[in-house]
Amino acid sequence: MKTKIQRASERGNANFGWLNSNHSFSFGHWYDPQKIHFGALRVLNDDVVKGGEGFGTHPHDNMEIVSIPLKGSLAHKDSTGTDGIIKTGDVQIMSAGTGIRHSEFNASKTEEVNFLQIWIIPKQQNIKPRYQQKTFNVSDRKNKWQTVVSPGEKDGGVWINQDAVFSLAHAEKDSVLTYKNKFSSNGVYLFVIEGEAEVNLPTGQAGGEALHKRDAIEISDTDEFEIKVKADADLLAIEVPMLK
Question: Where are the domains of the chain?
């Protein structure tokens, strides 16, 4: 079992006034050769956008792009004809494929929106662009994992063009969660949205430090691990193939 902790304070930051974005991996003008990607996970941006502001129409191709609102709502338009609102509790995915153009704006004129923007390197290149959005019952993730993104529709998540799985949990203090890989040999990027947790490490392995709000840990070379919850926590597990 291999692990690597990334503290919230170690992320890159870009603050444009209307947008305050923290980057877990190299993005835009922020570059760290040690933080390019974790397997197929290429981007995890923690974005706060002021009321009435947003990202104008711009293109993407051959990337799986997931948006998870944490607070507030996003107004989305794209070249597939989609025009709607993504609210807290929703998960949205775009398979950019051969090419897609889209815009995302804060749906409120006065309140900030905070959302996670996550890019996954696709399994197949140049597929037909695809959009999907789903509202999830947050009570169904209390002290357990709720699948929100997966390549198998029977798992209940929005579909992704990759052997990747996103799971959310709201775990109460002193609970213990077990994560079991859906795909053998995948790695897991565990991101603490809120609260405090600790990953159980094998006997003799250094680590096991507490993870706080917006801290993360890269976990590989194991298909199962346990998480001790030190304070009520919202957790995101991103399971991805370990691409070179």
Answer: 2-240
